[in-house]
Design goal:
The complex is a heterodimer of chains A (430) and B (1336).
Chain A (H helix, E strand, L loop, with lengths): L9 E8 L16 H8 L1 H16 L3 E5 L10 H16 L3 E5 L19 E3 L6 E6 L5 E7 L24 E7 L1 E2 L10 E2 L1 H6 L4 E5 L5 E5 L3 E4 L15 E8 L4 E7 L4 E8 L6 H19 L3 E8 L1 E2 L2 H5 L3 H11 L8 E8 L2 E2 L3 H5 L4 H13 L3 H9 L17 H20 L5
Parallel strand pairs in A: 1-2, 2-3, 3-4, 6-7, 7-10, 8-9, 10-12, 15-16, 16-18, 17-19
Antiparallel strand pairs in A: 1-13, 5-6, 11-12, 13-14
Helix pairs in contact in A: 2-3, 9-10, 9-11
Chain B lengths: L1 E10 L2 E4 L9 E5 L6 H13 L21 E7 L5 E7 L6 E4 L10 H5 L4 H8 E3 H7 L4 H11 L6 H15 L8 H24 L1 H54 L10 H35 L4 H5 L1 H42 L5 H6 L4 H51 L4 H8 L1 H9 L1 H32 L5 H6 L4 H52 L5 H44 L9 H20 L2 H28 L2 H39 L8 H69 L11 H49 L5 H18 L14 H71 L11 H46 L7 H56 L5 H32 L4 H9 L3 H40 L3 H59 L4 E5 L8 E4 L4 E3 L5 H22 L5 E4 L7 H15 L4 E5 L2 H10 L4 E4 L7
Parallel strand pairs in B: 3-12, 3-13, 7-11, 11-12
Antiparallel strand pairs in B: 1-2, 1-4, 4-5, 5-6, 8-9, 9-10
Helix pairs in contact in B: 5-33, 6-32, 7-32, 8-29, 8-30, 8-31, 9-28, 11-27, 11-28, 13-26, 14-24, 14-26, 15-26, 16-24, 18-23, 19-22, 19-23, 20-21, 24-25, 24-26, 25-26, 27-28, 32-33, 33-34, 34-35
Classes of the chains: A alpha/beta (430), B mainly alpha (1336).
Amino acid sequence: MPLPPKSLPQTLRFVHTADLHLGSRVLRLPGMNTENSTDLSDSTYSAWKEIVDLCIREAVDFLLIAGDVYDSADQNIRAQLQFKEGLKRLGENGITAYIVHGNHDPDDAWSKSIAMPENAVIFSSKKPESVIHRDKEGRPIAAIVGMSFATAHIRDNLAEIFPRREKKWPYTIGLLHCSVGGGYSHEPYAPCSIQDLRRCGYDYWALGHIHQPTVINDRDPHIVYAGNPQGRDMGETGERGCRLVTIGADGTTETEIVRTCGYLWQEIEIDAGGCEDIGILEDQIRRDLSILSDREGVPLVGRLVLTGATVLHHELVTGGGVVALTDRLREDPPGGQYPVYPERIICQTVPVIDRNVALARDDILGEICRQSDAAASNGRERTRLREEASSLYRSYAQSYTSEPDDEEFETIIREAEAMLLSFLSEGGRE
Amino acid sequence: MKISSLYIDGFGKFHNWKPSASFGEGLTAIVGPNEAGKTTLLAFIRRMLYGFPDGRKKDLNHYTPINGGKIGGRLEIQGEDGREYILSRTGIRGSPSLTYADGTTARGSALSSLLGPCDQVFYENVCAIGLGELQEISTLRKDEIRDRLAAAGAGNLPVRDVATSLQTSADEIYAVQGKKKRINILVSDLKEVEAKIIAVKKSQREYDQINEEINRMRGAVAEEERKQKTVEEEITYFKALEKAWEAFAEREDARNTLSTIPEIEPFPGDALEKFNRAEDEVQRYEKDYDDQNKEHTRLKGEIERCVVRGEVLDQADTIHALERKTEWYRSQMDDLKRCHQESERLEAGLALILKSLGGDWDEERVTRFDTSFPAKDNTKQLRDRLAKTANACTVQQSKLDASEKEAEEKHGILQILQRQRDEIKESAVRDEILRQADAIHAVERSIERYYSQGDDLKRYHIELQQKQDKLSTTLQNLGGDWDKERVTGFDTSFSAKDGIKQFRDRLAKSETVCAAQKSRFEAAEKEKDEKEESLKTVQRRRDEIGNVACPDTAREKLSQSRELLREIQYVQELETRLYSIRQEEARVTEIKKSLYSPQAFPSWPGVLVGFLAVLVFGWGYLTEALLLAGFVALILLVAAVSLLLLGRKREESSSPQDSVHQYEKEGETFADQRREVERELSEREEKILSYAGLLGLATPPSRTAAEDLVHELEDAVIEAGRADSLDKDISRAEELHKSAEASLKRVTEDREHALAEREEAQNAWRLWCRERELPETMNPDLIPDLIALIQQAAGLYSEIETMKKREMGLSEEIRSFEEKIRGIIAACREAAGSSDTISEILQRLFAYMEGARRRDERYILSPDFDALPSRKAAEDLAHALEDAVAESDKACELDQSITDAKERYNAAEASLKKAQENLQRALSEHKDAQDAWRGWCHERGLPETMNPDLIPDLIADIRRAADHYTQITAMKKRTEDLSKGIQSFEEDIITVRDACDESLKGPHDTILEGLRRMLRNEVEAKSRYNTLTEKLKEKSEKLEGTSALYNTAKANLRGILKERGAKTPEEYRAFERLSRKRQGLEESVRNAESAIRRISGKDHYNDFITTLQEYDPVRMQVDLQEKETDHKKIHDTIEESNQAIGKLTERQSGIEGDHELTRLLSREMELKEDIKQVSRQWAVYTVASSLLRMAVETFERDRQPEILREAQSFFTGITGGRYTRVVKPFDGSDPYVEEATGAQKRIDELSRGTAEQLYLALRFGYIRDYANSSLPVPVIFDDILVNFDSMRRKNACQAIADLAGTCQVLYFTCHPETVRDLTEVIPDAQLIELSEVGGK
């Protein structure tokens, strides 16, 4: 992707990435052909290659990697070798990589026999270290302070022990794998606060650990989570990439998100409201997805959520409609230049039946609505339903499933209600 | 809501259409023949209410307007609020518009508010009933009918199907008992994947270890390789030495040998060769000379031996001429020999033939015998004639034999037949039987009747017996003193029975009354006892409480005691206060004492004002006048502060005088207060005393005592209350007791009255019994039974009479039949002789019959009626008749056969005679022929006995003998010719032999051969002589040349020997050999040296030589072997290490290139996600299933009874009251219906028709219930009554009429009888004819 020319003369340019999780699991899609499936499985490697390509193309001064290069729990040698390969390519182009270890790849987890090339600077896990990066003429252009995780479970505040900025240091960058402020759905390793980071007086904090790309502070200092460069499942939807950071001669810091993901995970809502026929619905899905994929410009892995009140509800839910639709879309993935692979289709449609009307009635339909209302409001009925829908969660599949929480259970009740209304109304229409 | 009218702009075939009349409030029947558009109209109403379906939907009739107009129209609707609405829709996508009748938009009223909760699904399921639905029921299975009916009573929802489908879906995913469910498969897949991941990770963990191992091993290999190189160098050196050693040794040997050989001028390379050549030449020339000389001598000798004979050569031409004729001579000789042989053979053949012809035959007779063709023909004729006559004789003889045999046979048959005929004897009985044939046939025909009559008789007899038994039993039952007269005389008429019934009723009634009175009496008694008992109980409880004050007094005392306690408490408080005041007073006195005038401005006013402010604030807070109160409180607070400040100022400014003054004043105040308190105290104490007095206490009690007293009195009050209520209970119980006693008395009276009534009734009964001679103690209830018995007995009497009569009649008939038989038998018996078989049978029969006649007048019928003599007799008679007829038939047949046989016998005799004549004729003819033959033989001198058949052979032999004879003559002539030719040739040969002067002997051709040979030899000898002479001349010339060459060669050899100083050729050769050996040794020395140099290299040559000079090959071999062993070991080690490294590297690269892990991790994630989704889906199914169950339970409990009640009334109506209840038990078991008789029927026991009606009733019930609880909507029936019988159709019309009272009913039909029934039931029903628009 060509980048816009920089107006100001540049003094420093680097790429910030983190959480590569090379070779880690990526949700595969059933029915996908072997080639694409392998491509998808290997998409973390492709993303790493993209990053290396970006560094070389943009001739950056250095690359910052803020931990979790791979999952040590997986013992994945291929991942480490691929990483080394990328570093070597950077080295051949005179680019240094500054690396800290995170909770997934702590200091003690890297294979001893895979020696990293000389251009890889890995920070100590004992105490924060500072390195002055010099340009080709030997002028110092940046100071990088970093510290690695010694083991996986670091509960100490590492930011606290980072040194304050020294006067002689040029543009100063903190490199750390940590949880700032908490409140994310990640383990709170190396917890710290924004104040802890501010206190050090650095210019840029290149952080890792949080997979969602996030800018915590956009100036003085910049505190940035680059996010992981490739989403791996429906928990990691949306744009994924790394940060290309340019510091102008006047000291301004410009950060730019560069996409590195080969596949974009997305939840896509499709309104099936107007469709009276599965074929029409499929056409609509294809149209919507084609527009979407053209807009995104990258292959998508989408969870399609069908919504709206439709006469197709019954067919979708019980007549194998969803299964047939999934099969059709997998067989011939929609999308134009960039295909869209449906991860699965979630049917949240409702039957074309006025629930209020049904509720007002004295018959079984009305009774179903009333019972479900009672169950939703935590009554005796809810306990009964809970009890009756619990055997699976206590079976030998127990360790792989978890009983739905209250909120989820309420959704289930509503889905069950919609299903019943739709089932029972079947045949009542012309 | 109700639909009052409609307008169709365009819909199907309708265009711009309006019904002829508006719809009625209750029932509207829309009548039209098929194709009139009823279905279209139905669809129109539906779609107007619920919208037009999407045009893109296939397999659906969209009713596109075909006669113009835009799809849509209007419905005129009457709402429940009484207002008129117009609902219009235009176009498929057009939304409905709802206006008031005047065209103004109905604000706030949507279509849904008119329809209420009746959505389309509900409408179709409940409010519209089609014929199809009903007809479908008759196609369903029983369980399906049950489901359908259950659904009809629950809004027609497919509950059971849905429940089943949900359960199936859930079970497919997971079931407690299930195996191979989706979840199981997923979990086991996941486990498998996890296991694989663990395995892959394990191998990944080994990576570092493998790398280390590889490095270590590579180091070791490098070390070994270094060692290997050293050893290899050593081995190479050793090998070089070894290789060089051979050359070195050769060199040494050569040098040693050289030293022993003298120095000789070297010979040129070809010297020896040249020498040998010269020597060979000499020898060759010498040998050639000798050979040629020998040849020459031999040739000379040969010429001398060669001699030639001239006389033989002279006869050459003659010999050649003879030679040419030799072949001819030999053939002539052969021919001659053959001729001799042939004639010998022919002569022998002739002799043989002549011998065979017989002694008297010779050549002459043979040639004379006539063997011409006519002669032969004559002979042939004679022969044929003889043969023909002989043949005719034979034929006639055989014919004669056949005729004789036939005649014999015929005679045999005739005899047999006559014998048979003689066997049949004449019989008088048979004749008689045959005469009686008609009578017997008549008997035979009536035998079955006779038999059945016998059966009847037997049956009557048994029946009679039974009746008589029954009668006697009945009479016994009636009692000993009943007989026929009494039984028949007893009055059993209806009026008599009625009288008895009245008696019985009266008795029973009085008895019932007595019993009722008795039970009432007992109940009253019991009640009285109970009341007494309860009165006693209450009194006992009251007595337990004993004497207590009345509650008012007790309460008064309690209040007094409470007052007392309060006073005592107050007094105590006062005392405390008094004490504190006294202390304060004492303190003030002290201060006064210390300070003379310790006067000070008190601070209490300020405090008081402050307190007041707080109070005001509190008051404001309580009365919600916070603002006002706050304001006042603020002012008061300011005042209080200023008062306090003032006080302090005063304090500061005032002198000690002021203080003293102040304290004094304070002292006074305290004194006042104290006094006040003391006064109050005394007042209170007085009060206490008075209370104590009132309470009857001598002294005022302490506080504790007072408290106890209060408690005590509280208890007393409760006790008093209880006693009071018990008193009330007692008085109530007493009242009850009294009333019970009164009622007991009343009941007793009633009872007595009833007893009297009963007595009277019994007396009347006894009288009645006496009148009829019945025991007085007779139970009136038994009278109907008695009468029935009497009637039965009377009936039996009359029956017995009738049967007896019929029995007599039957007996008569049987007897007459038997008489008839007897008559026949008697007639036959008279005709019979004594010895006849038939007569024996008849005898026996007659005995039977006589026995039968002798029997009693009345037949005594035995159970084995079949053995009746008359039956047996009749049958036997019939058999006898059959036998007689058969025998006479047989006799007739035989007579006929005999006549036929006689005729045939005569014919046979005639033909025999004829055959004999023919034979005679043939024999005379044969004799003539033989005579002719004998004449012929005599003519030719042949014996007369000669067989004519041999004549052709004889002629042939004679002719052959004649031929032989002719040939022999010819042969003799030829022999003579041949002998002449041969003789002349032999003479020529002898002449030549003599000319050659040779004494050759033997046959002439041999002599000629000898002459010819001789001639040839002489010619050859002549030519040889000439050749040898020429050869001798050549040889002499050659011998001279060879001699010259020999001499030249000898001179040359001598020259060569001289050149090398050798005396003999041997010496020359030895010199040459020594010179060559020397050269060879020098050459090998050179070669060895260059070889060594090659091995050692130029530089190390001298060292090498030096080393070699000390070289020991044996030791060196050992050293080399050692080194090689070392080398091999090192090589093997390296090889092993390299292999190990290879394996490790392979594993390493396997790990490095392992794509499996990511794939497996991905698969693991996929499976986990699947499990999550699938289990969630399961939960949805399961919850839905449970939800449905809960809803159904609630519905069945709360709602359905009402519906069933409604349905029940419809069902009773439709079935004309046959069924009265429709029951759905709460325990969930299947519903059933109950008949008017109370019998229950399960739904699957109902007939199809009734099931249909029940279905309809349930639907009606549901509609009625719905209309009662929600907004009623119009219901539409599409010809639902078609399949009902007329009765039920009428009933159903009544049900529809009932329903039409609740909501509007639109009934679509094409059946006039339905319309008739409907209008009969509902006279004000609206009728709309559809045919008016049909086909428009």
